[in-house]
Amino acid sequence: MSLHALIIEPFETLAFMRAALVACLALALMNGAIGTLLVLRRMSLDGEVLGHAVMPGAAVGFLYAGPSPLWLSLGGLASGLAVAALGGLITRGGARRDAALVAFYLAALSLGVLLVAWRGSNVDVMRVLFGTVLAIDRRALLEIAAVSSISVLLIAALYRPLAAGAIDPAFLRAVGARAPYGALFSTLVVLALVASFQAFGTLLAVGPMLLPAAAARCWGLGAAVSMVLATGFGLAASVAGLLLSYHVNLPSGPAIVLTAGLLFGSSLAAANVLRRLAPIIGREA
Amino acid sequence: MSRLRFEADRRVILHNVTVRYGRRVALEAVSGEFVAGSLTAVVGANGAGKTTLLAAIAGVVRLAGGVVNCAARHRLAYLPQLAAIDREYPLTVAELIALGGWREFGAFRSPGAALRTRATAVADTVGLAARLQRSIGEISVGELQRALFARLVLQDAAIILLDEPFAAVDAQTVPVLLDQVTRWHREGRTVIAVVHDLDLVRASFPATLVLARRCLAWGTTEMALPALAA
After folding, report:
1. Which of residues 195-224 of A touch B (CB under 8 A)?
2. Rounded to 5 degrees, what are φ and ψ at A98?
């Protein structure tokens, strides 16, 4: 098989592969920045919970209008923001917060599945759980592109207070920066997850956000470089996952997330090996 | 470095300040005045309410009763105990120090050249000149405390609250930090510090407040400190 047939042909011949590629690339551009901040702010679990929080609202949208991207998104946005607000109320850290967050996501997930199964088929349930990255239409593509553009610009503007708030929240309040940056960031995460929802479903949406960022963080680089690397990992996982799904006939969403997972695993292992080798080679770790 | 203009600005006056955590009373009816430009050590056993007192003055804990009069609250700097900083965040020592100028550059601009020059100069006075490009995760606890002191210098506050600034730092760092505290005192800033080492209190702090949830004694160190043993 030629390289052309391996890499170019699937996208050249099939319009839905092209649409999926563009959607994944747009999502990766946004997810690199948001995911890195999510990891740096130690909010991985929050991201996971918000991913599932989208579900009940999307299900209500589904009951109202069938599998319409617009109504799924609007419903998902509403319930995602509601759970983000509830999560914001639990300010005390520690194990009790973890338990409350997990309770939220189990409840949200079950409620969503119940609602969809009530009126829809098993196919509908699978669709909201795992997404349909190969069935992205023009309208969904525009939604993804719009959310991605806005998110990248907002992160660029808000990076400084978001970073300072992660390092030393009390200091930020003390110097008079009292805008609700944390809430703004949660809103941004929900928006990003809603944009990913159609492609990856409620179970996988957080994967393309978290995994490339976690992989990039393994290398111990600065925040900005980590964001760039995470975006690179996300782009690579998208292309590789789509090609894998095409050639081996696998479901595309899971193939992309699994590729990102492999990138995380190998980053973790490689960074560990490098750290152990560093004293032997005589370079500072 | 900066001129501190109004005498009244730098006073902190407490009227019957009371703080409760649930049903537990952490601080009960503490009254008195931190004179403008004074340097006061707050001493007491564990659980005596020392940290709570600083938090009450900084306005980060709700009072169950009483009033804190602090006209210069907008020019107050509060350094809590070390645990509050996330050291895994990829940030250099220089960047951490420059955060002290936040009020100058704000949330949406980067620190200017003048501020960065001042940050470098301050880093030099606390002995961190060679560590500026290190990540805050790589430096020692003492070096982190020096960096936080440098950040405080850039904050240019009229009232400075320090919670156990000398605890857990190495022996070489204590005199460096103490020099800076003395410098703030000479510049006319009001400094209030929770301190455990009583020899250090006797040697360097003119005034002392002895706490055991209530105020046991408050005055010159010579006069107030014996109340701790009693």
Report:
1. 220-223
2. -55, -50
